[in-house]
Design goal:
about 0% strand, mainly alpha
Length: about 90
């Protein structure tokens, strides 16, 4: 059996191409221009995160208020102090 018969040429070629592209990719990723792009993208992600966190905090505060009011309504109802439920429609 020949040595070439034992080596899968297609797999070896794909491995070599992967190493070549990986090495070139590292050089491209380390360039100044690429670094600027990464920095800008990271800054945009941080801005988006801040906006999302503000919105989530607002939603959580509103949900806590609604929960507290609903609990109070149920407590008043159990105590018999609620005569008529008032529902205000906000448009």
């Amino acid at each position: 059996m020949d040595l070439l018969d034992k080596i899968n040429v297609k797999k070896t070629g794909l491995f070599a191409a992967g190493v070549l592209f990986g090495t070139a990719g590292i050089k491209i990723l380390a360039s100044k221009d690429a670094r600027k792009v990464y920095t800008q993208c990271t800054a945009a992600v941080l801005r988006a995160k801040e906006c999302i966190m503000k919105t989530a905090t607002s939603i959580q505060e509103n949900a806590e208020d609604i929960y507290a009011e609903a609990k109070q309504i149920n407590e008043d109802r159990e105590a018999g102090t609620v005569i008529d439920d008032e529902v205000e429609v906000v448009e």
